[in-house]
Specification:
A hairpin with a 6-residue loop joins strand 14 and strand 15. Helices cover about 40% and strands about 15% of the residues. The strands form four sheets. The protein has an eight-stranded parallel barrel, surrounded by six helices. The chain has one domain: TIM Barrel, CATH 3.20.20. The termini are close together. It is built from 17 helices and 15 strands. Helix 7 packs parallel to helix 9. It is of the alpha/beta class and about 500 residues long. It is an enzyme of class 3 (hydrolase). Belongs to the glycosyl hydrolase 1 family. One of its GO terms (biological process) is cellulose catabolic process. It holds the Pfam family Glyco_hydro_1. Keywords: Carbohydrate metabolism, Cellulose degradation, Glycosidase, Hydrolase, Polysaccharide degradation.
């Protein structure tokens, strides 16, 4: 049943008498061994997730402006399979069908993002009412089906008009982002959960260091400024949210988290693994609670900007900000309470020490076991470990697992009666195993309030284009037909078994 607007589901640990620190019981099951997952708390928020650019299409309709991804995807060679997101799943025209699929799935929540350039084609200024009305209708339809909207304000689709003015490397973009967020807070009614940013670490590194994602730059110095302005934008958006006094609504941020596993117990590789995990997992979370970056992140910034000699002792934050001409006082403003933390988890990161590595001695290793079509290792235990770490490091803050899923090479088959089936038992097993990992974290006292599968639909998987399929629902990109997969029904059974 749909909860009161903004109410985070409350629960008790499913194990009678369980308290904080309760140990996990029994051996860790393999994904293929996990068949039935039940016993999660009453009121647990079961959901699925998508993002605007990856599913909406309608790239130039009803007043929408271009985003950095519209421009980037059209550059030859940037997308592995040569596709673009102009149509994607055509969700913009087929959203009612997709809401029906959500209702059939039986989930309690749907996480989606708003396309910034669909609402503000120039990134600021005049509002495109047709774009905003699309999201109003979607929110209303979700409410009518008893599904809670979980809205991500920014999922990587910066208006290209703002990028031409410097994008996230410029302070003004953080201000414009907060104004855009404030517009959504005021005009999109009935949203119980708001997420400011999705995976800012990924957007920073792949967009401004490696250049694999839009806007495709390779400028580490600029990347540090981008990271700062992401945090500033989040901070200003949270302030705007608090100013609205939205009774019952909650606000948080979503970050990609990984478990970094060193190859062996050598002191050097263990130290490198710890430092990378703190950089990856803490860069966009620590400042929200402490007003400071993790020291490991500061050392990484120093190496990026000045080489090994930059990794000195002393007040690295002050030195770094002086060199980049950033206001040091911003750091204290970053310390803003959030109502929940969103955790995206897919796989672990295995590392070794190699002095010849271009990453300062850190060498990234291939998966050690079963892997998905993305080449990502299937390691459900890592989700339990990440949740335990987040709970320990940032106590008292509820957690939502805002993304978890797997890509496989799905192929539909036509049955004798003419119906179509997509048998993706590997994905079904992946989901079962990771829900079990969440249950184990709950047993040990972690305050996890919800779990969202990525994704409802196959979609445009960024630099991989349409070639990688994460959906519970197969999308035939030639006809745009939707075909629920085996994993769709497996996840529905999990939701039903847990009171959904």
């Amino acid at each position: 049943m749909f909860r009161a607007r903004g109410e985070l589901p409350r629960h008790r640990c499913p194990v009678p008498g369980c308290g904080r620190g309760h140990p996990a019981r029994g051996k860790r099951p393999k994904p293929s061994e996990v068949k039935d997952v039940a016993g999660l708390p009453e009121g647990f928020l079961w959901g699925v997730a998508t993002s605007a650019y990856q599913i909406e299409g309608a790239a130039a309709e009803d007043g929408r402006g271009p985003s950095i991804w519209d421009v980037f995807a059209h550059i030859p060679g940037k997308i592995a399979d040569g596709t673009v997101g102009d149509v994607a799943c055509d969700h913009y025209h087929r959203w009612e069908e997709d809401v029906n699929l959500l209702a059939e799935l039986g989930v309690r929540a749907y996480r989606f993002s708003v396309s910034w350039p669909r609402v503000l084609p120039e990134g600021k200024g005049a509002v495109n009412e047709r774009g905003l009305d699309f999201y109003r209708r979607l929110v209303e339809a979700l409410h009518s089906r008893g599904i809670a909207p979980v809205v991500t304000v920014y999922h990587w689709d910066l208006p290209f008009a703002l990028y031409e003015k410097g994008g996230w490397a410029e302070r003004d973009t953080a201000k414009y982002f907060a104004e855009y967020a404030h517009l959504l807070f005021r005009r999109l009614e009935g949203v119980p959960y708001w997420i400011t940013l999705n995976e800012p670490f990924v957007a920073t590194v792949l967009g401004y260091v490696t250049g694999e994602h839009a806007p495709g730059e390779q400028d580490p110095r600029k990347a540090v400024r981008v990271a700062h302005h992401f945090l500033l934008g989040h901070t200003l958006a949270v302030r705007a949210f608090r100013d609205e006094h939205l009774t019952g609504s909650r606000i948080g941020i979503t970050n990609l988290m990984t478990r970094v596993l060193p190859a062996g117990e050598d002191r050097e590789v263990v130290g490198f693994a710890y430092a990378f995990e703190r950089l990856h997992n803490g860069l966009f979370v620590d400042p929200l609670f402490t007003g400071h970056y993790p020291r490991e992140a500061l050392l990484a910034f120093a190496r990026i900007l000045w080489g090994e000699e930059g990794a000195r002792d002393g007040d690295l934050e002050a030195y770094l900000y002086a060199q980049l001409e950033l206001p040091l006082e911003d750091l204290e403003t970053f310390r803003q309470p959030v109502d929940f933390l969103g955790v995206n988890y897919y796989s672990p990161t295995r590392v070794a020490f190699n002095p010849a590595s271009p990453f300062g001695g850190l060498e990234f290793l291939p998966p050690a076991g079963e892997a998905t079509a993305m080449g990502w290792e299937v390691y459900p235990q890592g989700l339990t470990e990440v949740l335990l770490e987040v709970h320990s490091r940032y106590p008292g803050v509820p957690i939502l697992v805002t993304e978890n899923g797997a890509a496989y090479d799905d192929t539909p088959e036509v049955l004798p009666d003419g119906t179509k089936r997509v048998a993706d038992e590997a994905r079904a097993n992946y989901i079962r195993a990771h829900v079990e990992a969440v249950r184990r974290a709950l047993e040990r006292g972690v305050d996890v309030r919800g779990y969202f599968v990525w994704s409802l639909l196959d979609n445009f998987e960024w630099a991989h284009g349409l070639s990688k399929r994460f959906g519970l629902v197969y999308v035939d990109y030639a006809t745009l037909e939707r075909i629920p997969k085996t994993s769709f029904f497996a996840y529905r059974e999990i939701v039903q078994a847990n009171g959904g």
